[in-house]
Every structure is written in structure tokens, then in C-alpha cells.
């Protein structure tokens, strides 16, 4: 194939990629913002508490709240 034909073929390939959404168009997850209703934990948080993660107060058992700690949202006893 002559070298004169390679440049138009390359240009055509680049234009087709741009028409399809570009070279680096990946399926990205939508940004989810943290729930602002969850407050920081008032009591000291220990490492073993970080096993009980939650997203809402309904994820926790009775007499527990969902609060924000250094390891994420955790269920903490209110008593």
C-alpha cells in the first residue's frame, strides 16, 4: 500500500473514533454525595466498631445510630 494512502486512512480512523465519543470516553459512575443527615460520632470510635457499616439509621439495630467515623459510616450504640 502506498504511503500516500496511509495518512487519509489514519485521519478517517481518528474522525470515526471522535464521532463515537472519543478515545477516552469510559463508562463512569455518577458521583454520589455523602448523606448530610449523618453527623459525626460523638463517642470515641474503636477499630472493632468499623465492622458495622451503615448508609442510613435504618441499617442499624435498635438503640444504635448511624454516624460518621474515620473508617466511614458506622452503627454506634446510643446508650
From TrEMBL:
<keyword id="KW-0732">Signal</keyword>
<feature type="signal peptide">
    <location>
        <begin position="1"/>
        <end position="21"/>
    </location>
</feature>
<protein>
    <submittedName>
        <fullName>WAP four-disulfide core domain 10A</fullName>
    </submittedName>
</protein>
